[in-house]
């Protein structure tokens, strides 16, 4: 099955999360950029507020799409030590790329949230939403960072991801909702008919509508 686009994926995810409709202590967090589009549909369908949780991939040298780790907005750092060792990635590179991504997180927070403070997470049911996972590094950093708060429940909702990754992420969340776990998996975008880039302007517009 291929999703038409991120909006359709979000609508289908919302159907699996119907039990949370209108929950007064629930909050949907989208991982920018593409994950915010999916999260928008989840939040709209379930009548819940929407915000962002920014985590940035630490890409491998000469292959930025391959994650050797990820850093969350609160500074939580997750590294794939085995991959770093196999690819002979230097510690200096990891440090420099981590710092670069932290600066990008600051830029995006300012762009998306402006002067609004970060939402309160304590005692909330958090629905963390992305448009799909491959290695899962970005989502893993997000889950570990969010788990440092005293949450009522942490739910990960994604349209698609490989079985091993979804099993691994299930250890970090109270519940995982994933619509498809294809055994043959090469890229998240392969499971969408339209997987175009999401702009900062689109993210801001969606957030403003549901905040």
Plain-language structure description:
This protein has about 210 residues and is of the alpha/beta class. It is about 40% helix and about 20% strand. The strands form 2 sheets. A 5-stranded parallel sheet has the order 2-1-6-7-8, with helices on both faces. Strands 3-4-5 form a 3-stranded antiparallel sheet.
Topology:
Blueprint: H1 6-16, E1 26-30, H2 34-46, E2 50-52, E3 55-60, E4 63-72, E5 77-79, H3 81-86, H4 91-113, E6 125-129, H5 137-146, E7 153-160, H6 163-169, E8 175-180, H7 200-210
Parallel strand pairs: 1-2, 1-6, 6-7, 7-8
Antiparallel strand pairs: 3-4, 4-5
A few lines on this structure:
With 211 residues, this protein is of the alpha/beta class. It has 7 helices and 8 strands; from the N terminus they run αβαββββααβαβαβα.
């Amino acid at each position: 099955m291929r999703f038409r686009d991120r909006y359709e994926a979000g609508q289908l995810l919302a159907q699996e999360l119907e039990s949370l409709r209108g929950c007064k202590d629930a909050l949907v967090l989208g991982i920018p950029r593409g994950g915010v589009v999916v999260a928008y549909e989840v939040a709209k369908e379930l009548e819940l507020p929407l915000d962002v949780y920014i985590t940035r991939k630490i890409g491998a040298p000469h292959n930025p799409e391959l994650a050797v780790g990820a850093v969350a907005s609160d500074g939580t750092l997750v590294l794939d030590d085995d991959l770093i060792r196999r690819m002979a990635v230097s510690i200096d590179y990891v440090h420099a790329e981590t710092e670069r991504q932290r600066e990008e997180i600051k830029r995006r927070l300012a762009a998306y949230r402006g002067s609004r403070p970060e939402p309160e997470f304590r005692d909330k049911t958090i629905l963390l939403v992305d448009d799909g996972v491959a290695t899962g590094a970005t989502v893993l950093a997000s889950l570990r960072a969010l788990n440092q708060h005293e949450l009522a429940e942490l739910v990960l909702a994604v349209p698609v991801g490989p079985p091993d990754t979804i099993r691994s992420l299930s250890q970090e969340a109270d519940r995982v909702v994933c619509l498809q776990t294809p055994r043959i998996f090469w890229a998240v975008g392969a499971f969408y008919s339209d997987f175009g880039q999401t702009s900062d302007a689109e993210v801001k517009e969606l957030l403003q509508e549901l905040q």
